[in-house]
Design goal:
This protein has about 325 residues and is mainly α. The chain has a single domain, classed as ABC transporter involved in vitamin B12 uptake, BtuC. It has helices spanning about 5-15, 15-35, 50-75, 80-100, 105-125, 130-150, 160-170, 185-200, 205-215, 215-220, 225-250, 260-270, 285-305, 310-330, and strands spanning about 155, 175-180, 180, 255. Helix 3 (about 50-75) runs parallel beside helix 8 (about 185-200) and helix 3 (about 50-75) crosses helix 12.
């Protein structure tokens, strides 16, 4: 291997976000080239409406992926997100439409349900020592079952305070914006800032990375390992509940079907952003880029008319690539 190849390899290992950036640029260019034209001859993929649509649809990926980044940093994984999203959305619908609670109280209860789900995950993983993979995927069945039970397997049409819900949390085609930008972009930036400070600019972030890297060494150095692992699960639950609220705002209804496969999407966005499975990485800016990769991929495939099942195949290939690449980087490090 030449000196240049060695240097490139070391750079990629040290800065995996470079690979994700190259992938993002390549995908963007490909979709521009193969995108169909509208009646005015403009490129549909590059249209301003579609760019805003990518930003809005990526918000859910990003917010959940930021929280998942912290989960991965402490050496765990959370596969209960779809259950929390579904249950939280249904709870919001019931609070607004069935119990006629105030808007603010309904939002607080919904976020509280998400936090409670995070506590349940923490108890199973930390207190009962169940591997996080098995614990969270098992608990997810409970959350989804409760969502279907509470909603009687039906979508709940949200009419009470729907305008307020839309203006604060955005909806497709609603024009909900603040200072000329979609409100979901602002929410993404808020969560980005919060998690950047928590992970990269606080002691807790260093404790999380130490815990994920070597639990026993972290414990020996005086870090409360259990507390460090409780917090990410609770924050993940709150983030998932927030995404459930976004679903309700965008679609005008609460459904137990929301959030399918979102746990994996969060994980892949975080991995594409350079976060590994053992406490390395944790760059939320990279996670944002990984979320954009997922958002552009989904959007571009839909625009060029790829069948939904083929989209799943292509998405699966991206997931396999991300996991294999993450494991390779971990071994090289």
């Amino acid at each position: 291997m030449s000196i240049e190849q060695n240097a490139l390899k070391r750079t990629i290992i040290k800065y995996p976000i470079i690979t994700t950036l190259v992938l993002f640029i390549a995908m963007f260019i490909i979709f521009i080239i193969i995108s169909p034209r509208n009646f005015q001859g403009g490129n549909i993929f590059l249209s301003s409406g579609n760019m805003w649509n990518i930003i809005e649809s990526t918000a859910g990926y990003s917010i959940g992926a930021f929280a998942m980044t912290l989960i991965l940093l402490v050496g765990c994984i959370d596969l209960s997100c779809e259950g929390v999203i579904a249950l939280s959305a249904v709870v919001l619908g019931l609070c607004l439409e069935t119990f006629k609670l105030s808007f603010g109280l309904s939002i607080l209860i919904t976020l509280g349900i998400g936090a409670a789900c995070g506590v349940i995950n923490s108890i199973v993983v930390i207190r009962f020592k169940v591997p996080s993979f098995l614990a969270t995927i098992s608990v997810s069945f409970i959350f989804v079952g409760l969502a279907y039970t509470f909603s009687q397997s039906k979508a709940i049409l949200i009419q009470t305070n729907n305008d307020k819900l839309t203006s604060i949390f955005g909806s497709i085609g609603s024009g909900a914006s603040f200072l000329g930008f979609p409100v979901l972009l602002w929410w993404t930036l808020v969560f980005l800032g919060l998690y950047y400070i928590l992970i990269s600019r606080s002691k807790f972030g260093r404790w999380a990375q130490a815990t994920g890297g070597n639990e026993y060494s972290a414990f020996s150095s005086g870090i409360n390992v259990n507390l460090v692992r409780w917090v990410p699960f609770i924050l993940m639950g709150i983030a998932a509940a927030f995404i459930g609220i976004i679903f309700c705002a965008r679609l005008g209804a609460a459904s137990p079907n929301y959030g399918a496969a979102y746990s994996l999407k969060f994980i892949i966005a975080a991995i594409l952003g350079g976060t590994g499975f053992s406490g390395e990485g944790g760059n939320v800016l990279g996670t944002l880029l990984g979320s954009l990769v997922m958002g552009v991929l989904t959007n571009g495939l839909s625009i060029i008319g790829i069948d939904i099942y083929i989209q799943n195949v292509i998405t699966g290939i991206v997931i396999v690539f991300a996991v294999v690449f993450s494991i390779y980087l971990q071994k090289q490090r």
